[in-house]
Write a structure and sequence with these properties.
Blueprint (H helix, E strand, L loop, with lengths): L2 H31 L7 H4 L1 H17 L2
Length: about 60
C-alpha cells in the first residue's frame, strides 16, 4: 500500500467514525432536547437530526 492510499483510507475511517458519533449525538439531541411541538425541523424528527449531526461530525473529522 502506498502512503497516499493509506492516508486516504485513514481520512475515510475518521469520517465514518465522526459521522457515526455525530449521528448518535443527533439522536441524543432529538431524544432529550427535541422540540415538543414539532415546530423546529432539526430536532422534531430523529432521522433529520441524525443526518444533520452525522454530516457535521463527518466534516469535522475529515478536516486537516
Amino acid at each position: 500500500m502506498t502512503a497516499e492510499r493509506k492516508t486516504k483510507m485513514t481520512v475515510l475511517v475518521r469520517m465514518l467514525i465522526g459521522g457515526a458519533l455525530g449521528a448518535a449525538l443527533g439522536f441524543v439531541m432529538y431524544r432529550f432536547v427535541g422540540c415538543k411541538t414539532g415546530a423546529c425541523p432539526m430536532t422534531a424528527n430523529p432521522f433529520v437530526a441524525m443526518a444533520i449531526y452525522g454530516g457535521i461530525g463527518a466534516m469535522l473529522a475529515a478536516g486537516k
